[in-house]
TrEMBL record:
It holds the Pfam family TonB_C. The keyword tRNA-binding does not apply. It comes from the Bacteria. The keyword Transmembrane applies. This is Outer membrane transport energization protein TonB. One of its GO terms (biological process) is transmembrane transport.
């Protein structure tokens, strides 16, 4: 290839100068750009055909929207269910409930000639409680309720009949030595135990030089109707007490209000006794 041909020849012709152009590599490289253009054109036609067929298929399957048919609701036919009337419980009565009671028949010694043949003594039944008067009420065993107030029992109100206390009335303002329900610490024994563990200085005997042993202090105190405590007294204590008696009194005085004692369904004054034990190991 001379100089003129080199100027007009392409790079591919210069590369394959003197080589076998019929081998195939020359033809592949020379027509490479043409083949790429044909391939791109064919791929574009295929993509267009695929997209067009897909859109046509979807357009055939789409149905126009349908309006929902609704039925009218007539609110005038709706009736609110009737509510059951609430039962209002009766207000609690301030007076204690009455109990079924039969008047005690006081036996009297009478001459046989004065007793009428057809006269029979009144019956006394175990189903009723015996009391100073006859009244109708509840049949409840163990019910704590106040006795009926009477001005006299037995001897026409003179106060010397059966069960009378001078004037036939019980004095609920006095201090009762025995009661039906004793005073107790609020919450019961478990709460009392926790209070002692929290408030009692259990090592006071050790601090005062007490020997190993158990030191028991018995304290009595007055529990009023409102549950307040007063008149705390030491009933018994070891000698010497090594400060245990004073500590027991202090704990009782700071114990707060107690649940008062109950007698005949009424709260009454009561002198409670409490034992406090100090153990020195």
């Amino acid at each position: 290839m001379d100089a003129k041909e080199i100027l007009n020849a392409s790079q591919l012709d210069i590369l394959f100068e003197g080589k076998n152009k019929a081998y195939g590599a020359y033809a592949l490289r020379k027509n490479y750009n043409r083949r790429i253009e044909l391939a791109m054109f064919g791929t574009g036609i295929i993509v267009l055909l695929f997209v067009g067929s897909t859109l046509m298929t979807k357009s055939r399957n789409i149905e126009p929207p349908r309006l929902m048919q609704t039925q009218p609701v007539h609110l005038t036919n709706y009736k609110k269910p009737l509510e059951k009337p609430r039962k209002i419980p009766p207000a609690p009565s301030s007076e204690p409930p009455k109990m079924e009671m039969a008047k005690l028949t006081v036996p009297r010694v009478t001459d046989d000639n004065l007793v009428k043949p057809d006269e029979k003594p009144p019956k006394q039944t175990d189903a009723l409680r015996v009391g100073p008067v006859t009244q109708h009420g509840l049949h409840a065993d163990g019910l704590l309720t106040a006795p009926p107030e009477v001005t006299g029992v037995g001897d026409h109100g003179k106060g010397n009949g059966v069960g009378g206390a001078g004037n036939g009335q019980e004095d609920y303002n006095k201090i009762f030595p025995t009661v039906q329900v004793e005073a107790r610490y609020p919450g019961g024994p478990e709460a009392w135990k926790k209070y002692l563990e929290r408030s009692l200085r259990s090592q006071i005997a050790v601090e005062n030089g007490a020997a190993t042993g158990i030191y028991k202090v018995v304290v009595s105190f007055l529990v009023a109707k409102d549950g307040t405590t007063s008149e705390v007294q030491v009933v018994s204590a070891p000698d010497p007490d090594f400060g245990t008696a004073g500590e027991a009194v202090r704990v009782i005085e700071r114990s707060g209000k107690w649940n008062p004692a109950i007698q005949n369904g009424r709260v009454v004054k009561y002198r409670e006794k409490q034992t406090i034990i100090f153990q020195v190991e």
